[in-house]
Write a structure and sequence with these properties.
There is one protein chain. This protein is α+β, with helices and mostly antiparallel strands and 327 residues long. It has twelve helices and twelve strands. It has helices at 2-18, 25-31, 33-38, 45-65, 98-107, 114-129, 138-141, 157-166, 238-249, 267-272, 294-299, 311-326; strands at residues 23-24, 71-74, 80-83, 170-174, 183-195, 198-205, 210-215, 219-225, 253-262, 275-280, 283-291, 305-309. The strands form three sheets. A five-stranded antiparallel β-sheet has the order 7-6-5-4-8. The chain has a four-stranded antiparallel β-sheet with strand order 10-11-9-12. Strands 1-3-2 form a three-stranded antiparallel β-sheet. Strand 4 (170-174) and strand 5 form a beta hairpin. Helix 1 (2-18) crosses helix 4 (45-65).
């Protein structure tokens, strides 16, 4: 069975790499012998179609996991086609020195999730096969108790990561911090960024016709793929996306805010404070940089934080707390 699957995947990969135009599922089903043998037309055609669709989706995902870049193209009549362009699947010469190779090895150990760990390990194997030098893992040799990790708890992370990779629009329900009910969003995902322990998606919001950033912990329900498979706007470079995430998440400060913080609480706020003064009775007064998104961050500290000024920041925090209280 393993040999049969490997042969089927190889034939599918060769078919996608050899075509000059996108091939539909119907064309691939009739071109690959394994599909023809397993799903002959006739009795039970409906069930056969469903079984083929499931097998094809699994095969396509397996090829992508192996590193094959498969493009999804929608024709003028709405039919979806697939192809793997040779220029997108050709690995350039690897020219990494020992220190760069060691850095990649360390980066591969950051991910906690099994799926990402497997992908990182597979990527290292491909790079080594292409000529990346083997290095002694000094990090592993010392058996350090400190280990770099990037936590990913949100269920939306994996489907969004794949959608960013495949350039595939998505649909999801999103609840803003000051809203009682979630709203439907139709987004062309660009990149995922981690900032202060939270993951954010940057992309083009089709409903608003503009660039937006979404915090993954506020996505409710499942992330669904959109039927309109092509992006409508160009994807900006990585630097621009990162700056956008930082700006929307509150990194860009334009003025200072004054807050009261319970003693012994809110270390992340204390680390950003430009001035701290003890008030007594278990409270301190802090001055911290104030930018877009600070109100959402302060709400996370609940009763341990009281905003003194500016007044508009205090009002925004109160509104968010009332929205949370309403459920």
């Amino acid at each position: 069975m393993a040999i049969a699957k490997a042969e089927r995947l190889m034939n599918l990969a060769l078919c996608l790499l050899g075509t000059r135009r996108p091939l539909s599922k119907r064309e691939l089903r009739g071109s690959i012998e394994a599909y023809v043998e397993a799903f002959r037309p006739g009795e039970g055609a409906a069930g056969s179609d469903d079984s083929f669709n499931r097998m094809f989706e699994r095969d396509k995902d397996d090829l992508r996991e192996l590193g094959l870049v498969i493009e999804t193209v929608e024709s003028l009549d709405g039919e979806i086609g697939y192809l793997a362009r040779r220029d997108s699947n050709r690995l350039p010469p690897i020219t990494l020195d020992a220190e760069e190779a060691a850095a990649l090895g360390l980066a591969a150990k950051v991910w906690q999730q099994a799926r990402l760990a497997g992908a990182a390990s597979g990527a290292l194997q491909k790079l080594r096969a292409a000529g990346m030098p083997e290095t002694e893992d000094a990090y592993e040799a010392h058996h350090s108790a400190l280990e770099p990790r990037i936590p990913v708890h949100e269920s939306a992370f994996e489907p969004l990561m794949l959608a960013c990779r495949d350039r595939r629009p998505v649909l999801f329900d999103y609840r803003k911090a000051n809203a009682a009910q979630p709203e439907k969003r139709h987004v062309e995902p660009w990149a995922l960024e981690c900032w202060r322990g939270h993951w954010y998606l940057a992309g083009h919001d089709r409903g608003r016709g503009a660039e937006r950033v979404f915090r993954l912990s506020r996505i409710t329900g499942k992330v669904r793929s959109s039927r309109s498979g092509a992006f409508t706007v160009p994807v900006p470079d990585v630097v621009t996306v990162r700056e956008t995430v930082e700006s929307w998440a509150g990194e860009t400060a334009t003025r200072s805010a004054r807050i009261r913080l319970r003693s012994g609480c809110g270390y992340p706020l204390r680390s950003r404070a430009t001035a701290v003064r003890e008030l007594g009775d278990g409270w301190d007064e802090l001055e911290i940089p104030y930018g877009h998104g600070l109100d959402a961050w302060l709400v996370e500290f609940g009763p341990d934080v009281v905003v003194l000024e500016p007044a508009d920041l205090r009002a925004d925090v109160v509104d968010r707390l009332r929205a949370v209280a309403k459920g």
